[in-house]
Amino acid sequence: MFDLERWEEIFDTIRKNKLRTILTGISVASGIFILVVLLGIGQGMRNGISKEFQNDAANVIYVWTGVTSKEYKGLNPGRRIQMKNQDFNFTARKYQDELEYKSSVYRIWSGLVNYKKESRSYRVEGVYPDYQFLENSTLTAGRFLNINDHNNYEKVLVIGKKVKDELFKDEDPVGKYVQLSNINFKVIGVFSDPGGEREESRVYLPLTTAQRVFNGNNNINFLSYTLQPEENFEQALASSTKFTSELEEYLKEQHTVAPDDTSAININNSLENAKRFYTLMDMIKYFFWGVGICTIIAGVVGVSNIMLIIVKERTREIGIRKALGAEPISIIGMILHESIFVTAVAGFLGLIFSLALLEILGPQIQIEYITNPSVDFNAALTTVIILIVAGALAGFFPAWRAARIKPIIALRDE
After folding, report:
1. Could you state, in order of their start, the residue ranges of all structural domains in the chain?
2. CB under 8 Å to 197, separation ≥6 — which residues?
């Protein structure tokens, strides 16, 4: 029920102590402001990490080799491990029911591509047709490589958007011929990639063609796979971990590498990376919550102290109220009402300013690992609940003290 007299008392008290109330409100508002901004930054970090993982397939596994670091079976350390076609073919057959996409890669870091008067160097990769999905590439023109291109050693290329812009300008490249290592290749498609220009400055051709043109024999540089989707993240992570463990064991056995040699066979499992990153993000989020709540507590303590002072100043008034028959619950309600009001108003101002700041500046923030800091509805609702609880806590102990004042003692107060 709306009590006009109660509200008049609250505003009268605020008017009498304007500076004190404003400073207390600022401490509460700054606490909410800091909490919401920190939560926004935490969400921006999650957005940035998610964007990084979107550059490739969500559960992609990459394998590459290095040099041995340990002696094993009479072989000295320092041997460079070279994977072969049979490494890919064996795993593709053995795990055919578990794999979603698969490809081996033969890479030339700098291949010279010529078209008319234009000549540029690009990363050239011989791949299987599945590589489009492993790299999360999207065709913008033409088609991607197919298995017939691979089986027939076709001289065809799929080029990135940056390659198209630099070599062909406004021309449609599909169907045109370019020279790669002084050999004519037909452009059959153009792709874009969420990784941006760095990923779009590549040229794809059939793996068999790349090995033949660049004298690669049956050598390959990378293996890449994705597994069939699972019902949830934990199952997908378990399957992925099991696969990578068995794959690493097979490759070490095939290439005579010590089981505990960590430099010869390298495997990057994006699901394991995602697990680590999101675990870290959760820890950062909890830390931000802790810092924000501690800041709010500092403000709440200020409100509580102010209410204690108010109770002290109104001791005689409270004694008169009790002498006239006021119930303790009404005294507690009076103090709590004022405490919650001051805390709520200050907190909502801090909330509004912080949300406005994130709304205006958030979309403009596009730095590495932080993208569009924002706060969702659930987080905003949580801060509102914190406000109400904080206001109640700030006023409870002063209100309890006021309710326990004996009228005879209060009336003697000067």
Report:
1. 4-52+276-412, 60-270
2. 162
